[in-house]
Design a protein that fits this description.
Organism: Chlorella ohadii
Pfam families: Pect-lyase_RHGA_epim
Distance between the termini: 35 Å
Protein name: Rhamnogalacturonase A/B/Epimerase-like pectate lyase domain-containing protein
Structural class: mainly beta
Largest sheet: 23 strands, parallel
Length: 619
Amino acid sequence: MYDVRKEFGAKGDGKADDTKALQAAIAAANKKPGVVFLPAGTYRLSAPLMITRSGVVLRGAGEDKTRILIGTSLADVYEGGLSQNGTGTVRTHWAEAGGFITVQGEREWSGRNDTRLAAVAAAVAAGDTRIPVDSTEGLTKGRWVRLYATRGAQERQASAKVAAVGAGWVELDRPVPFACGGNGSSNSWVCSVHRYAPTVTDGGVERLTIEFTGSGQYGAHAADRGFNAIHISSAASVWVQQVTVLNSDNALLLDRVDHASVLDVTVGTTKPRWSANDTVWQREGHQAIALSACHAVLVARFNIATRFNHDLSATVGSLLNVFSSGSARDLNIHHSGGPAANLYTEINAGLGNRLFDSPGSAAAGQRTTFYNLRAPGGATGQSTAARPIAARPTAAAGQALAGRRGLAAAEETHPLALPPCAYGRQLNFFGSWAGTADKCAGWLVVPLNSSMPPDLWAQQWFERGNAPDPISGAHRPVAEAARTACQTFMGDSKDALECFKLVYDHCIPGYTNRNAIPKDLLYHERTVIGSLYRQASGGGDFGSPPHMPAQYSRLCVADPKRAGSGNCKKVKKGDYRIHVPGFNKRPGSRCDHVTGQISFVKAHIDSRHRVEVYGRVGH
């Protein structure tokens, strides 16, 4: 771990410019990967930080403890970046790229001959798993590959594992999400198979706040000056979690990223940024969370507390991404450039005045699903005038935004207006929608009923994992045990008991409304599980190459007696007990993947977030 204060001289006092110290820490981690830790404090940054290696994590002590203040823009740091089209409209490079925290890998694309393995030899339909290829050299069972589809300058990509190889064909472990091959006409997508070769993986940004102090008024659409917080490009298996961004042009930009997660991200402002010529919508930035040419990215438990031109974006061929369990002040969804098969589920759309105002196209969003989007603050249909935004937080109160996620069960909601048919083809709408889709190409509009889950992704994820039934004789803790654990970990929080009860009531198996669980507990849950999996994988418990079991953890900080162990000591601060299926301690092995077996995992997390897994309690 690289401590920016102890090892690199950062002050963290909110006055000194800590850029050189932070850049030096990142440079050290780029040579020898590890965690770059920013202890509690306020750090001033005046130039970007660039992560270029796998295994580098930029970590704060918490959104309410670690703050990065930025008083300049990327346009101030770098010369150029401006362009002007034929009509005289000014556009900038910073509208779609660049960030003061950048994670940058080597670009993977269809034109790279050094990664190319084969061409797709005949037509393939969306949903197929067997791919005819002109060569099987280098294609072996268990290998990850990228499948590219190109048509002119357009490109789509997906990744999969090789399940089998035969004479002139390869079988993938999942369906192909797009059609390719065909008769070779100009309308056909040409497909090729490449090595899966990301150069930046297993890193991320977490537990801190980024605030722009000099961003001023937001300018015209796409004329951004580059008050951009985080940009991740050409990376895989990376994350952003528990991050708050304030006063940005673009809070989070991802391009060519796959198998990644964006969890518990809050975006807001501390002062008005909308311009005088935008009094109707009062937009205060360009993009809050944007995916471009991304696939298999989970964006969950977000809170977009002010209006951007585009709150959630999935563009340029982005597919198989999930936006789940989040909320926005007045949600706008942007999908252009041929995205497909994305899922938006269990989202509080806020006022609901401009959900589909960003234009789509006839080719946009095919097989995309909008499931249980709700508007507790809007009226039936989309309005032509903005509703006023509630008072914005101060900088010190910015973290409080993160606590408002999801919808309460008893909230009154209103139907959302369906978009015009030009928004896209083959779109699916589940929930309460106003309007008609009779003339829209391939649209499906279905109301929800009591038998349908509130979060489609959570339910699908749970069912695909074949989660085991509860163990006979298992006990859930009583309210008093929950209260004791709550006070141990969270102090006297009014919301804590309800959160713990909610977790316990749905401990294993079943859908848990994770939105109500305190973010610190969610973070530590993932930390413990990740550490446990790494230990098991490194020790050979999952085979070689590792075959990881489906993860169905449920955080349970429980009364030890109720946890099924008479030998457990009293739960103390930093100790966590987590239900994990598939880990069963038995002689001769550290942990084995046993179907239907559930254990409690005991672990301790110290003040620097280091994990010690010190026992498993059979249950």
